[in-house]
Amino acid sequence: MSNAPRNCRVGVDIGGTFTDIALDLDGVLHSTKVLTDYAAPERAILKGVASVAEMAGIALSEIDLLIHGTTLATNALIERRGARTAFVTTEGFRDTLEMRTENRFEQYDLNIALPPALIARADRFTVRERMNAAGKVLLALDDASVEAVVSAIAAGGYESVAIGFIHAYANGAHEAAVRDAILERLPHLSVSISSEVSPQMREFERFNTVCANAYVKPAIKSYLDRLVISLKDIGVRCPVFMIHSGGGIVSVESASEFPVRLVESGPAGGAIFAADIARRHGLDTVLSFDMGGTTAKICLIENQVPKTAKTFEVARTYRFRKGSGMPISIPVVEMVEIGAGGGSIASVDGMRQIRVGPHSAASEPGPACYQRGGKNPTVTDADLILGKLDPNNFAGGAIPLSAAASRQAMVDDIGTVIGLDPDAAAYGTCEMVDENMANAGRVHTVENGKNIADFTMITFGGAGPLHAARLCEKMGISTFLVPAGAGVGSAIGFLRAPFGYESVRSAVFNLSNFDFAEANRLVDAMQAEALGFVEGGLDRGAPVIERTLFMRYAGQGWDIPVPLDAKKFDTDSTRMLAAQFETEYERFFGRAIEGLDIEIVSWSVKASSPLPPVDRVAAVDEGSVVTPAKTRRLFEASQGAFLDAGIHERDGLKPGDVVKGPAIVVERETSTMLTAAFKAIVQSDGCLLVTRT
């Protein structure tokens, strides 16, 4: 093994089915997939890192940096597998978690069932205190009630405590005092306070967020501690960083303290990967489509930047309806995520219709074809029956697949129920999952005021390229790109992510009596907070600072983002802010409203390391059509029949080569299926540019 200095970085993405590892050694990529180990997730990481290091021919000690993203926090919230947690709040607000807001996610359902609160009522406690919306003390913290709560927590055997007081976003002094009182008597407990986790207005969302942070904090901290130690034990002594939901990189210590920021970390890596490809190909209107083993994620990327938000939902309980899940108020890459992955289970509902997901076979036991104990039919089983997968070359041959087991599962759960043979049941399963994903894509683009046909799709994930062509047919998209390394796209995205942190706070300022000095103090404090998380990871250049205000007309119930320049506020700022808000308001809603006061309700300051420049991919001339060395029977959905499809090894294709559908382009971590309506042209960077013929 060479001892010469090298630049070696590793990205690790733990998914519901596979753990993806990508190693970048001086610009050369090595990757692998390992089945996720639910009992000890770090074991899959150690196995995968050792495997890619061996592929690259380097010692584990030569790895310079490891960046990790995980769905463990998400899974803990969805499956309610967290710590025994207590919630302490202001007297009179014990039931906020159940009362939620006045919004109904299904307006006409008389039997609507709201999702249960993360923390049961018996585990929620109150203290006498009160702040007003400006952060002034209305009722001093009552020491007797604090002492009673601390005693109750000590007697309850809790592992973690969440503290959320009314208007603590404006002044967190009471929350901090109660935390100090708890830790003075119970120093072993994990304590989270809302004024640090999510200092934003709207108590339901803020309370949920701090409860979620406390709920997953002990398990995530324990896991990260084990991971760092285990890596050192096998010889990996480089720094370990985490990707957070907003698409930036933070230290393991920060992630351990605020694990709720990891909830969408894996999908955020995928969006960064797609944005990087968009930059290289000069694409400004992109739909990122990431389909893995458990879920599918769709994200809009405009002007080569993923769309972001300051709140999102996890664990939606009612047909993925907005409002039926658990709101988390943290900065996040905005996307729609549905239970439609390779491991998603197909079944027949009461109306004798095929349904797919959200339940997944995951990695344990996995799809029926894995022969690891799974008996339910999944999307992967359907793909195998329809000829999309090679049973002898799945995951590079690491997992032999049994078509007989897939067919038997289809017969048992679908065929015997509604009278379909295995081929028809598999066809119905794939059509249903593709239609679900197409509907999600249509709704997401319409909600953002866009026409989905105007987008170019960038697809990745183990199952994304398998389903992209049919998805594009359904959505009316004419072009999609399959990048090199698509099977481990999120892990590669981690290697492209900047060090970054976004500070978000709520503080109401009316423009009619704008206090510019106080506004400057607020922004300076937020910038210092964001830089404190970022500067340790900067290896080149000055940090990039982005500032955003969330503004509305006084009396409105919601706000819109307004970009803010780097200037200090002064006496002329009122006019400037009003003009900027009205410009953005007109862009959102068509026209501004005269005569109403304008207010700022929330503030965002994001600091990040500068993105390195990328080389634009040169266009290639269309070459000759490649003749396949072999063929396989592949089901063509548009014709409802099996056709002979050419099989092409991706490593054997060169820039300019043309592959016409029906065909399958195979590689180690995924395969790209081309229906008869599409052709692929290999680009100079190895991407497949697939267009409708």
TrEMBL record:
Domain called Hydantoinase A/oxoprolinase: residue spans: 206-497
The signal peptide stretch is none
Hydantoinase/oxoprolinase N-terminal domain location is: 9-184
InterPro entries named among the record's database cross-references: ACX-like_C, Hydant_A_N, Hydantoinase_A, Oxoprolinase-like
GO terms assigned for molecular function = 5-oxoprolinase (ATP-hydrolyzing) activity
Q: Where is the Acetophenone carboxylase-like C-terminal domain?
A: 537-681
Instruction: List the GO cellular component terms.
Output: cytosol
One biological process term in Gene Ontology: glutathione metabolic process
Q: Which PANTHER family match?
A: 5-OXOPROLINASE RELATED (PTHR11365), HYPOTHETICAL 5-OXOPROLINASE (EUROFUNG)-RELATED (PTHR11365:SF23)
In Swiss-Prot or TrEMBL terms, this protein is called Hydantoinase/oxoprolinase family protein
Which species is this record about? Shinella kummerowiae
